[in-house]
Amino acid sequence: MAILGSLTSRLSSIAGRMRGKSRVTESDIKEMMREIRLALLEADVNLEVVKGFVDEVSAKCSGAEVTASLTPGQQVVKIVNETLTSMLGATAGKIAVSPSGFTVILLCGLQGSGKTTVAAKLGLSLKNKGKKPMVVSVDVHRPAAARQLEILAIKAGVQSFIKPEETDAVEIARLGIDRARYMLCDTVIIDTAGRATIDRSMMRELREINNTVYPAEKLLVVDAMIGQEAVNVAKAFDESIGISGFIMTKLDGDARGGAALSIFKMTGKPIKMIGVGEKLEDIEEFHPDRMASRILGMGDVLTLIEKTVERYDSSKAKDAMDRVNLNKFTLDDMLTQFEEVSKMGPLENLLGMIPGMGAKQMKNASVDEKAIPRSMAIIRSMTAKERKNPSLLNASRRKRIAAGSGTSVQDVNRLMNQFEQTQKMMKQFGKMSKGRMPGFGKGFGL
Amino acid sequence: MGIFDRFRDGLGKTRKFISESITRIAAGMGSFDEEMLDEFEMTLVSADTGSVVAMRIIDKVRAEIKRSGGSGQEFVVSVIKTEMLDILGPARPYSLEDNKLNIIILAGVNGTGKTTTAGKMCLRYMRSGKKVILAAADTFRAAAIEQLKHWGDLNGAQVIAHETGSDPGAVVYDAVHAAINRKADVLIIDTAGRLHNKKNLMEEFAKIERITRREAPDARIGVFLVVDATTGQNAVVQAKIFNEATVLDGVILTKLDSNAKGGIALAVAAETSIPIIMAGLGERAEDLVDFEPEPFVDSLFG
Question: What pTM, to 2 d.p., does this model score?
Answer without folding.
Answer: 0.79
